[in-house]
Amino acid sequence: MYEKMISMASFDLFYTDDWFPLIFSFTDDAPHSDGFEAANMESTYTIMNLGTLFVIFLFGLLQYVLYAIAKMLQKCCSCRENSCTKKLKRDLFWGLPMNFIYQSYFEVAFALLLNYERSIDWDTPSCFLNNAVFFIFSLVYAVFPFLL
């Protein structure tokens, strides 16, 4: 019962524990403790513990790529700015990053702390991606409280 409540409270809607292992090849690791396992943080890898938040983060990055492509096409074709580009510009610059950080601060912080305890390995491309996400998120989430 608690597992379902925790998954809903933590916004884990896509059940990434089922399909992340098919995409990422991490070395096996055990949960930090029974409490973290009950809270659906069964790994010490940041990407695995973020779950749906990592998918939302990737979707946010995709929006930046789409905005850059739209701006390049706009300059290339000498078109004026359309409503889609205006909406993306308004939402992406400070809207999306700030909302993501505000709404996911504690979950990302827990995922980072669990990863901090483990030794950093560079064995597979998945581990490399996990370490990159860990370092970038650690920097952003360490600096963010001082920006307020």
Please tally the β strands and state the result.
0
- What general outline do the C-alpha atoms trace? elongated
Structural class: mainly alpha
Give the percentage of residues in beta strands.
under 5%
The helical percent reads over 70%
**Low-confidence regions:** none
Largest sheet, in brief, is: none
* SSE order, one letter for each helix or strand: HHHHHHHH
How many discrete domains?
1
Distance linking N and C termini = 37 Å
Count of helical segments? 8
Cα-atom Rg, whole angstroms?
18 Å
Description of the molecule:
By secondary structure, the chain is an all-alpha fold. The protein has one domain (2-147). The protein has helices at residues 2-9, 16-23, 34-38, 46-50, 52-77, 83-92, 95-117, 125-147. The longest helix is centred in the middle third of the chain and has 26 residues, at 52-77. The model has no long low-confidence stretch (mean pLDDT 78).
Topology:
Layout: H1 2-9, H2 16-23, H3 34-38, H4 46-50, H5 52-77, H6 83-92, H7 95-117, H8 125-147
Helix pairs in contact: 5-6, 7-8
Key terms:
148 residues
Quick rundown:
With 148 residues, this protein is mainly α. It has helices at residues 2-9, 16-23, 34-38, 46-50, 52-77, 83-92, 95-117, 125-147.
